[in-house]
Amino acid sequence: MEQQSAIELQQVTFKRSAAPILDDVTINLPSGKTTVILGPSGCGKTTLLKVAAGLVIPDSGRVIYKGRNLHALGERENILFRRETGFVFQDSALWSNNSMYQNISLALTFHDPLMGEQEVRARVESLVKLVGYRESLSRRPAEASAGERKIVSFLRAIALHPSLVFMDEPLSEIDHPTAERMIEMIRDQKREGRTIVIVTHDPVLTSQLADNLVVLDNGRVLESGPFAQVVRSTNAEVISLLSRVLSEASTFDGNILDLLDEGTHL
Amino acid sequence: MVALLGRRVIQRIRGLLYAAGFLYEVLRESFLFVRHRQVGYRVLTMQILFTGVEALSVVAVLGLALGVVIIIQGMSLLPQIGQGQLIYTILITVITRELGPILTAFIIIARSGTAIATELGSMVVSHEIEAYVAVGINPISYLVAPRFLGVTASLLILNLYFNVFGLVGSYFVVQLIKPVPFAEYFRGLLSSLQTADILSSLVKSLVFGVIVSAVSTFNGFRVESASTEIPQVVIKAVGQSFMLCIVADAVITLIYYMR
């Protein structure tokens, strides 16, 4: 059955200094589902995620959102699209001159200028409580650990309750208990029917959350589709790549595909 | 060879068109700034504080010292050739019309132009600009417009301070060395000061403010991915700001004398 698209990439190509980063990529990111993009380091996953989120303009091809080319949206439509989306950057990309609190609250005050200061504070505090973040929010990002920055980046992305969340390596640099809480929060987002697109090497995150997989290599999509279908692919290239990519981040000795297949997949 | 030259010319034209487009966006967003909710006002306040208030002491000392030098030199030399009254015209020409605007612009280039280009360049490298785009905040309206308005307003105010310290403050310092009657000094000064002098000074400050802020922000955004690009764009921002301010100064002065 054809799944309804939240975002659709059609023949997207992106080059840097004549070298293709993305080569004729056509994928469908189904609405209300979690899509995990897998591939070796440097294969174009982050660029693909940024193109899908409208942060990078492709050299050719189209990114379709609600039937319209994302890069042709007007100013107002673009703001509405941004209100509907959240993005967790690989390096967190927190605003270094702002406090952690301001990093989370800025999007709220920008998109809801009528929201009172107390309401904003209450929203931020409820988010912080959810993830169990106990450190002071008045600190600046440089005073926090990489893991803390990643958590705040995640909270910033979901502060507006977006319907579409893009995450670039959301669990990197996070300790195990916090990672578990983050997975739980992502699972909550999934339960609430949000469309989630994740770039990761993490087999646990993939096995527990992925509905769909996109396997990328050298800027080309090797295979994409429902999780069960892709992990049972007979394509030798896909099998080899999945084993290689997931074992990079895994300490498990067993077969990685088995691990994915037998995970606590929702 | 010809192909290479052609490519360079096309590249330069594209660069100029891009810069013109950037300036248009900055002007548009600055006009719309008031409508853009309260989030950008904090940036504007911080910019005025850094550019306008914190540079006050440097501008005051420079204006005061220059005024003292002109008064002492003028009052020693001009009476010898029977042109003692020219001191007031020289003061207005040098302090109000010429050096006031250009020296304050140079101070702002050195202090704020470099800081703005460095800050924006670092933000590009650490993906902070992308993060603004990701939450729907237009970096031009949130980061550039307040800096543009803050630097331009600060330059106008600092030029005014430069004039106050250069024309009035210096008088009081000179009293310690060579007393001049108060009424005579200020009467002479006011009779030499014309509306055109004030207008010329204000127009120069305004134009220099636009140049310094636009050039610095533009160069800050030219950083692509590496921190080593930051000092390069800062050097470019300083060089281009100096050059454009001097050229604009010459053009405005020319217009002043052609009226």
What does this structure look like?
The complex is a heterodimer of chains A (266) and B (259). Chain A is an alpha/beta fold and 266 residues long. Chain A contains ten helices and ten strands. In chain A, the strands form two sheets. Chain A has a six-stranded mixed β-sheet, sandwiched between helices. A four-stranded antiparallel β-sheet of chain A has the order 2-1-4-5, with helices on one face. In chain A, a hairpin with a 2-residue loop joins β9 (212-217) and β10. Chain A is globular. By secondary structure, chain B is mainly α. Helix content of chain B is 85%, strand content 0%. Chain B has nine helices and no strands. The termini of chain B are far apart. The mean pLDDT of chain B is 91. The A-B interface holds A 50, 53, 55, 75, 78-79, 81-83, 85-87, 89, 91, 93-97, 106-107, 109-111, 113, 156-157, 160 and B 37-39, 119, 122-123, 126-128, 130-138.
Provide keyphrases for this structure:
heterodimer; A: 266 residues; alpha/beta; 6-stranded mixed β-sheet; 4-stranded antiparallel β-sheet; 24% strand; globular; B: 259 residues; mainly alpha; 9 helices; elongated
Helix and strand topology:
The complex is a heterodimer of chains A (266) and B (259).
Chain A lengths: L4 E12 L2 E12 L3 E5 L6 H8 L7 E6 L2 E2 L5 H9 L1 E4 L11 H12 L5 H15 L14 H13 L5 E5 L7 H16 L3 E5 L3 H7 L2 E6 L2 E7 H5 L4 H13 L7 H6 L5
Chain B lengths: L1 H30 L9 H13 L2 H22 L8 H40 L2 H7 L4 H39 L4 H11 L2 H27 L7 H30 L1
Helix pairs in contact in B: 1-6, 2-6, 3-4, 3-6, 4-6, 4-7, 4-8, 4-9, 6-8, 8-9
Order of helices and strands of chain B: HHHHHHHHH
Question: What's the number of extended β-strand segments of chain A?
Answer: 10
Proportion of residues in helical segments of chain B: over 70%
* SS-derived structural category of chain B: mainly alpha
Q: Helix- and strand-based class of chain A?
A: alpha/beta
Q: Can you count the beta strands of chain B?
A: 0
Number of helices of chain A: 10
Strand order of the largest sheet of chain A: 6-7-8-3-9-10
